[in-house]
């Protein structure tokens, strides 16, 4: 039960993290500053590379939705359904972990990417651990029948 409380606490902490306002990244066109958003780099170079954190966030959000469904299924005693949801989450997390990072991204973007990769890695371990427990439980239930 403490594992489920841990998952719920982790999910709530994830959703309580304040999102950065995308409007704060845009400069005022009337500003007298001549710096570019990429600290002197051509603004067109970094745009595709800036998408990696959003891509990882998308994977992470999808995986946490599946984990949430799995936890609810467990709470209702639906072990087989929980296994299905955890496996979906595991596949999403594996896909996220295998997403390559571009050769150059800004330091701010790199921090976001590192943060999401750490979260993804942590959740991969927790999902894998939970799947092992549920598979054992499901195996014991089927041998009892």
Automatic annotation (TrEMBL):
Q: Which Gene3D superfamilies match?
A: Phosphotransferase system, lactose/cellobiose-type IIA subunit (1.20.58.80)
Where do the segments described as Disordered lie?
18-46
| CDD domains assigned to the protein according to its UniProt record, in alphabetical order | MIT_spastin
InterPro entries linked: MIT_dom, MIT_dom_sf
Polar residues composition bias: residue spans: 25-37
TM region positions: none
- Using the record's annotation, list all stretches that form the MIT domain: 56-133
- What name does UniProt use for this protein? AAA DOMAIN-CONTAINING
Q: Which source organism?
A: Salix purpurea (Purple osier willow)
Species lineage, top-down? Answer: Eukaryota, Viridiplantae, Streptophyta, Embryophyta, Tracheophyta
């Amino acid at each position: 039960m403490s594992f489920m409380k841990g998952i719920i606490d982790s999910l709530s902490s994830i959703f309580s993290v304040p999102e950065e306002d995308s409007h704060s990244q845009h400069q005022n066109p009337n500003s007298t500053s001549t710096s570019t958003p990429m600290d002197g780099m051509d603004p067109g170079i970094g745009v595709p590379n800036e998408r990696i954190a959003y891509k990882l966030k998308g994977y992470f959000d999808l995986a946490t939705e599946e984990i949430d469904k799995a936890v609810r299924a467990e709470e209702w005693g639906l072990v087989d359904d929980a296994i299905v949801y955890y496996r979906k989450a595991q596949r999403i997390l594996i896909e996220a972990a295998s997403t390559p990072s571009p050769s150059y991204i800004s330091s701010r973007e790199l921090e976001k990417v590192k943060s999401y990769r750490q979260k993804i890695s942590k959740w991969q371990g927790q999902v894998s651990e939970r799947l092992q427990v549920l598979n054992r439980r499901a195996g014991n239930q089927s041998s009892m029948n």
